[in-house]
Amino acid sequence: MVVADEHVVLEHARAAAASCRQAAAAFEDFTNRLDVAVGPAEMAEYDALIAREAIARTQRVEAFRGLGFAVVSEGK
């Protein structure tokens, strides 16, 4: 791999990690707004946040694979 290409891969991994952080922050904001009475709107937002986190995590794992990292365990 050319050095310039390696830097692009590294920047991609950094961006993917930042995306995970942003997804987690959005989830934290959701929990801070959450009330004990959960309705359909909260359920829909929860589903969307879970999906966002899953996408961000998948993108992060793939980006770090490009740097040579392997996922040893995915919590299964």
Descriptive notes:
There is one protein chain. This protein is mainly alpha-helical. It has one domain (3-65). It has two helices and no strands. Helix 1 (3-33) packs antiparallel against helix 2 (40-65).
In short:
It contains 2 helices and no strands.
Task: Calculate the terminal CA-CA distance, rounded to whole Å.
Answer: 33 Å
Overall domain count: 1
Helix content bin: over 70%
What fraction of residues sit in β-strands? under 5%
In N-to-C order, the SSE pattern is: HH
Which consecutive residue ranges, at least 5 long each, have pLDDT under 50? none
What is the helix tally? 2
Strand element count: 0
Structural class, from helix and strand content? mainly alpha
What is the overall shape? elongated
Overall mean pLDDT stands at 92
For the sheet with most strands, the description reads: none
CA radius of gyration is 16 Å
List its salient traits.
75% helix, 2 helices, 76 residues, mainly alpha
Sequence-ordered SSE layout with sheet pairings:
Blueprint: H1 3-33, H2 40-65
Helix pairs in contact: 1-2
